[in-house]
Amino acid sequence: MSFLYDISRTIAPTLAVWPGDTPFTLTHTLRKADGASVNLTTITLSPHTGSHADAPYHFNDGDLHPSEMPLEPFIGVAHVVTVKRQHGGITPQDLASHDLSGVQRLLLHTWVSDVPDDEWPQDFPYPTVELIDWLAEQGAVLLGVDSPSVDRFDSQTLPCHHRLRQRGLFHLETLQLAHVPDGVYELVALPLKLARACGSPVRAILRSLEHA
Ligand SMILES: [Zn+2]
Fold this sequence. Notes:
Blueprint: E1 4-6, E2 25-30, E3 40-44, E4 52-54, E5 75-82, E6 89-90, E7 105-109, E8 126-127, H1 129-138, E9 142-145, H2 159-166, E10 170-173, E11 183-188, E12 199-201, E13 205-208
Parallel strand pairs: 5-7, 6-8, 7-9, 9-10
Antiparallel strand pairs: 1-13, 2-3, 4-10, 4-12, 5-11, 11-13
Helix pairs in contact: 1-2
């Protein structure tokens, strides 16, 4: 029997979003209670609401939208590792105690997973360009973080977003890895087939490997 971990944040009006981004809203267009044949809702959200995949168009004009992104990076074997570093850039040395040779997808579990959905994490840790280069050398295709960005909160130049793209990796942000033991799993976190958008929410799950 395989076991599933849901590693997605819950999308609700109370979910914290990036300061200045569009908050999630939900309204009813029709209600059964009012005599309609169905309940019908309308939702408004930024593609970066909760657990999501950034599209390269987010940081590169003319680059890929979610409907054009390959799916392979978002489904397959993934390593989950706990990172003890509380703040600043996460380096390969921070992960030295883990066996990550040949890692394809790396999910970084930090204290940010313990922050409630309705609180914005202050001063979250973030990957370094050095870590991304190391991952690329391992042949990795995806980096996932539980923080809201793969760059530091106040970065204007987004070096890690760009280095990931240059090295052929995609990335997931705002995962929720609390209660997930470190280990190797199958990740499924497919972006919606959204044209023209700058990212997509994902329902991210980890499935235990029967023969791990
Ligand atoms: Zn994002």
